[in-house]
Design goal:
By secondary structure, the protein is an alpha/beta fold. The strands form 8 sheets. It has a 5-stranded parallel β-sheet with strand order 5-2-1-9-21, with helices on one face. The two termini are 33 Å apart. The chain binds flavin-adenine dinucleotide. Flavin-adenine dinucleotide (FAD) binds next to helix 1, strand 2, helix 7 and helix 9.
């Protein structure tokens, strides 16, 4: 039995493991710092209180119950020792025949220390819950303060980064402002006091999508009341003030940071193995350049051998899923002495949601663009289908249906569990 250790149980890691499930020639260990898999494209729905964390997450151990050749190990990667075919984790050491990095990315603050300290990221389920608690808390604070300037700062939200995450968060916050805040916070009805800004250093919203999608998104967000400021690069965030490189400032207690991601450098893997954005350079079979039995898939790798994507693939769920599946087939090919197939990304299209009944979809072949209700419906359907199992799909559908028809949501409890000292973990 060949031992495969996968660092990271996201889209790439679980699709690789699923592709090898039930086989007698491989034993797969998934290592993850969390004990659950989660669905990042719907994090903002948790952050805005439309979905519960359990709707978009699932425990690893339950996922592979009864699949004898797959195990889960909770722990954080610390270092690889390729000469000994060994990894060191926060929870012990592990040997491997093949090591696969599928650890995704982390928030990139571009070296802005105050932003890192004071802004709210949206990359993990913890981040999403923190954001939800924070949004609800500032609303309560705003109802309590008698100071008009303070209230304005509490009711101003700046979202940095006009990619899909920034667009989705700002759009959903604007929907909430319309349908929930206006009803449940009658004390906060002065519209001039509350603002939602979407800011970006570039000149477009949704830069990877078509021009039509960009224009439609700009118009739809503006109609929802989001104030879009492009060509504005954040320089600092200090003393409740977002400071831009052009000298402009916005006073706010909330900066949501959705401006970029970066991969991690994995100790033990030589620096020559990394490319743009610290992504591990891989060949057409996802083998890390210069290493014999170490692979990388998903957001953390950079593959420039796919003719259609000479600058590397976009960091999207579909790329990670397809790479995980392909690598599983290639491992099977290696062990059965067959020829491996190189990875080629099949682009099924991109989409982004802006608000209720508002979304944009670009399909590459045939080149098509949708917007409005049809695009929104397609978005809902596809995201439901990609959730990990029926339980999560049904729960999410239920939460969305009730929110859609009632134009309301009820997941608005501020819950902050407190850690006790002297506990085992
Ligand atoms: C808010 C948000 C919205 C997005 N929306 C979309 C969208 O609409 N459509 C789309 O296609 N893509 C979207 N993406 C991108 C998409 O989620 C990624 O492309 C995809 O998750 C990449 O899969 P992955 O398996 O490479 O990494 P991930 O899914 O990020 O999984 C990485 C896993 O590795 C684990 N891990 C990381 N470091 C370590 C370590 N040191 N030790 C142990 N475990 C570790 C993590 O806990 C995680 O489980 C979005 C991303 C975010 C953050």
């Amino acid at each position: 039995m060949k031992k495969i250790v996968i660092i990271g149980g996201g889209f790439a890691g679980i699709n690789l493991a699923n592709g090898l499930a039930g086989r007698k020639d491989f034993h797969v260990t998934i290592v993850d710092r969390n004990n659950y898999n989660f669905f990042p494209p719907l994090l903002y729905q948790v952050a805005t209180g439309y979905l519960e964390p359990s709707n978009i997450s699932y425990p690893f151990r339950r996922l592979w119950r009864g699949k004898g050749n797959i195990s889960f190990h909770m722990g954080e990667f610390q270092k690889a020792i390729p000469e000994e075919n060994k990894v060191v984790l926060s929870t012990g050491e592990m040997s491997y025949d093949y090591l696969v990095f599928a650890a995704g990315t982390k928030t990139n603050y571009f070296g802005l220390e105050n932003v890192q300290r004071n802004a709210l990221p949206m990359k993990t389920l913890n981040d999403a819950l923190e954001l939800r608690n924070y949004f609800l808390q500032i609303m309560e604070c705003a109802t309590l303060t008698g100071d008009e300037e303070e209230r304005k700062k509490l009711l101003t939200i700046v979202v940095a980064g006009a990619g899909p995450t920034g667009v989705e968060v700002s759009g959903m916050l604007a929907e909430m402002k319309r349908s929930v805040v206006s009803k449940d916070y009658p004390e906060l009805m002065a519209p001039h006091e509350s603002h939602i800004y979407l800011v970006d250093g570039g000149t477009k919203v949704l830069p990877p999508m078509s021009e039509k999608s960009q224009n439609d998104t700009f118009d739809a967000l503006t109609k929802l009341g989001v104030e879009i400021k492009l060509g504005m690069q954040v320089k600092d965030y200090v003393d409740d003030r977002v400071i831009f490189t052009n000298g402009e400032r916005i006073e706010t207690k909330t900066l949501v940071w959705a401006a970029g991601v970066t991969s991690s450098v994995f100790e033990g893997i030589p620096l020559s193995c990394y490319g743009r954005g610290k992504r591990l350079l891989v060949d057409e079979y996802n083998g890390v350049k210069g290493m014999t039995n170490i692979f990388a898939i998903g957001d953390t790798c950079l593959q420039t051998s796919d003719n259609k994507f000479p600058d590397g693939h976009p960091q999207l769920a579909q790329v990670a899923i397809q790479q995980g599946r392909r690598l599983a087939k290639n491992f099977i090919a290696i062990e059965s002495g067959k020829t491996r197939q190189s990875f080629s990304y099949y682009d099924k299209g991109t989409m982004a949601i802006i608000g209720w009944n508002k979304a944009v979809v670009d399909i590459p072949k045939p080149r098509l663009h949708f917007k409005g209700f049809i695009a929104w419906f397609a978005w809902v359907f596809i995201h439901l289908m990609f959730l990990i199992n029926y339980r999560n799909r049904i729960r999410t559908l239920y939460n969305w249906a009730t929110a859609y028809f009632s134009k309301d949501q009820s997941l608005r409890m501020i819950i902050r569990p407190q850690a006790k000292q002297n506990r085992a973990a």
